[in-house]
Amino acid sequence: MKRFIQKRLTKKVQKLLAEHKPLIIAVTGSVGKTSARNAIASVLSAKFRVGTTRENYNNEFGVPLSILGMKSPGKSVLGWMNVLLHSPKTMPEVFVLEYGIDRPGDMAYLCEIAQPAISVLTRISPVHAEYFRSVEQLAEEKAVLLERTKASGLTVLNADDPRVMGLAGHAVAPILTYGFSSGADVQAKEYSLTTREDFSFEPNELFSSVRAQVVSMDADVMEIMLKNVLGTTSVSALLPAIVIAKHLGLTHEEILSALPQTQFEPGRMSPIPGVKGSLIIDSSYNAAPASMSAALDVLEEFHPVEKARRIAVLGHMAELGQYTDQEHRLIGLKVAEVGVDLLLTIGEMSREIRRGAIEAGLKEECTQHFDTPEDAGRWLDREIRKGDIVLVKGSQSARTEKIVKDVMAEPLRAKELLVRQSAYWIEN
C-alpha cells in the first residue's frame, strides 16, 4: 500500500507541475538547508507567490505533500485517499523545497518528482552517513541535484565548504557562489556579534545582534543587522537568498526589506532567556559535526563577566555510521579548544565527546555525564548561575529540548519557542 500511494502521489504532483509550470528551487545539504530555504522563500515573497516545504517534509512523501500544501495523514488510508483526490485551486509561482536524502538513489527520485530550475547546496558533513560507505559517497549523492538541475537554470554553491566546491564539476547549469570566502560571488564581510554588556538576560530584552556587510558581484553593498540571532551561520543562511533574488530580478530595496522577515526555526541557535538571568543558546533541533562545531564557535564569541561561565550541554550526533566515535571525539577536542568552562554530555555515544575534551586539556572535574536529558536538566537547573551562557545541542533522538525546557525562564512558552512540543513528542 505504501508503494502504491507513493507512486500515485508522485504522478499526481508531476501532472500538476507540468500543467502550472512553477519555478522549482531545491535546497539540500547536511546542515543549514532549512534556514536557507526559509530565507529564500521570505525574500522571494516580495515579488512572487511562493510555496515552500512544510515542517521537515523533505523526502519522497514530504516533497509532494509540500507541493500540494497538505499535511501527512500518517497511517490513515482514508486520509491518503483524500490527499490523492485533492486538487489545489491555485498554485504558487515559485516553490522553495528542501530535498533530504538517507540512502543512495534518494536524490534522483526527488528530482524526478520535481526537477529544479535552481539548486542550492549549503554544506556537507557526515550526517545521514549510516547508509553510505563514505562521506565522499554521501557527497556524490548530494551532487545528483546539481546534475539534475535544468541546464538553463542556476546552481548556487557555498564557497566556504571545500567539499561543496569540489562538486562544482557536476553542475550542468551556470554556477554562482556565496560565503565569507574571498572570491564568492556574494560575499559577507565585517561580521560582528554584539551581546548585552551586563550579561543579565531577562525575557523580552534584546540579547544579541549580528551585523554584516554583503557585497555582490555587481558591486552592490548591503548592510545587514539581525536581532536576537547568533553566529555566522545566520548570515550564511541569507546569502543564497540574495544570490537567487538578484538572479530573478528583485531590486536592492526589495531584497533588503524582505531579509529581516526571515524566520529562523526554533531549536536552531535560538537565544532564549534562562533561569537566574542566564542565556540559553537553543540548538536542540538536530546536530551534525559541522553544525556542532559552528555552534561551539558561537559559544566562544561570548565573554561572560565575573563568575559566569560558558557551558556546553551536548547530546549525541546520530546517523554517523562508521564515523560515530571519530566525530564525537573531534567535537570533544573542539570543546577544549574554544574554552568551555563546563561540559555536560548526555547519552552513551556522547561519552566520546567527554573523553576527547579531557584528552585535550579540559579538567575532568569540569565535566559531567548523564544518561538522560531529564537528569541533565535537573542538575543544570540547580547549578546554573546569572550570566552563564549555555549551549544546548544534540540530534533529534538525544531530545535535548527537554533540557532547555527545564532551564528556560518562561517554560509556559515552550510550545512557542521549542521544538518537538506536540503531544506525540511530549509523550515519547
Written description of the protein model:
The chain has 428 residues and is of the alpha/beta class. The protein has two domains: 2-261, 3-Layer(aba) Sandwich (UDP-N-acetylmuramoyl-L-alanine:D-glutamate ligase), CATH 3.40.1190.10; 270-427, Mur ligase, C-terminal domain (Protein-Tyrosine Phosphatase, Chain A, Alpha-Beta Complex). It is 37% helix and 19% strand. It is built from 16 helices and 15 strands.
Query: In the residues, how many domains can be counted?
Result: 2
Question: Whole-Å distance between the termini?
Answer: 27 Å
Largest sheet: 9 strands, mixed
Structural class: alpha/beta
Short account of what is shown:
With 428 residues, the protein is of the alpha/beta class.
Question: Which helices and strands, and how do they pair?
Answer:
Elements: H1 2-20, E1 23-28, H2 33-44, E2 50-52, H3 62-68, H4 77-85, E3 94-98, H5 106-113, E4 118-121, H6 135-148, E5 154-158, H7 162-165, E6 175-179, E7 186-195, E8 208-216, E9 221-227, H8 232-247, H9 252-258, E10 270-273, E11 279-283, H10 289-301, E12 310-314, H11 324-337, E13 342-346, H12 351-359, E14 367-370, H13 373-383, E15 389-393, H14 401-407, H15 414-417, H16 423-427
Parallel strand pairs: 1-3, 1-4, 2-3, 4-5, 5-6, 6-7, 11-15, 12-13, 12-15, 13-14
Antiparallel strand pairs: 7-8, 8-9, 10-11
Helix pairs in contact: 1-4, 2-8, 5-6, 10-11, 11-12, 13-14
